[in-house]
Inverse folding.
């Protein structure tokens, strides 16, 4: 008589375990990690996506509550590692855009970024918002769900978890190579700013009576804004390469946790 309730309880626990990994990933993914997203909406999306991962979750014993708690914490940690990796998609774009902001002088007038809830300058804010849109336009949320589903092959549901030094090395490789991918977005603007500074410096030394600071700074900012506007056209292609790089690098990160 008690078999049916026990079966239902086991299924609910399997769903909860799957939701722990999917929920950890989606809690940090671009878009859902925004403070404006209600926690109930995040939980709904996480439990809905977890339906695709129930088949990969084996039946677990319900007698040992401590072991079950450790298992849930392990699944959340794995999911958060995946979500943190995909969140780097937006962070890397913001980081390189901030280089231009501080080089041009926009960094002194920071605005609140609605996507991350932090302060960002003009170019960084625009680049972050565009990267957030491109994440969904390039099916980044599908890549994330697919990566979480494939992670069950690399890290099956067990209470054991190993940490190796290769985890840090893999993470540094992901960030460093990601920066190299999106760095061409800001190289033209940095180049034109440095060239303008050089020309203005030469003109100021050759003809001090021209008052270079009065008209030089507006010209410097105008040229930088013009080059940045053209650089934004290359951002979708760079973001697509960055997303593929992250999707390929995440399995290497997960392999560092394999026992």
């Amino acid at each position: 008589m008690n078999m049916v309730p026990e079966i239902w309880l086991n299924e609910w626990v399997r769903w909860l375990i799957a939701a722990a990994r999917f929920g950890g990933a989606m809690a940090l993914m671009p878009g859902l990690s925004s403070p404006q997203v209600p926690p109930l909406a995040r939980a709904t999306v996480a439990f809905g996506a977890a339906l695709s991962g129930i088949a990969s979750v084996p039946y677990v014993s319900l007698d040992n509550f401590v072991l079950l708690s450790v298992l849930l914490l392990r699944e959340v940690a794995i999911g958060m590692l995946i979500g943190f990796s995909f969140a780097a998609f937006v962070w890397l774009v913001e980081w390189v855009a901030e280089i231009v902001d501080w080089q041009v002088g926009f960094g002194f007038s920071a605005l609140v970024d609605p996507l991350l809830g932090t302060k960002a300058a003009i170019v960084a804010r625009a680049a972050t918002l565009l990267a957030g849109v491109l994440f969904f336009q390039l099916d980044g949320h599908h890549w994330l769900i697919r990566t979480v589903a494939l992670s069950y092959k690399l890290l099956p549901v067990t209470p054991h978890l190993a940490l190796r030094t290769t985890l840090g090395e893999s993470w540094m490789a992901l960030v460093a190579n990601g920066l190299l991918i999106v760095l061409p977005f800001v190289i033209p603007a940095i180049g034109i700013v440095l060239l303008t500074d050089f020309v203005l410096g030469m003109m100021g030394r050759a003809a001090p009576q021209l008052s270079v600071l009065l008209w030089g700074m507006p010209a410097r900012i105008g040229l930088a804004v013009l080059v940045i506007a053209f650089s934004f056209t290359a951002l979708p292609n760079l973001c697509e390469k960055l997303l593929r790089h992250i999707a390929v690098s995440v399995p290497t990160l997960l392999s560092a946790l394999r026992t």
The mean pLDDT is 83. The longest strand covers residues 111-112. The chain has one domain: 3-255.
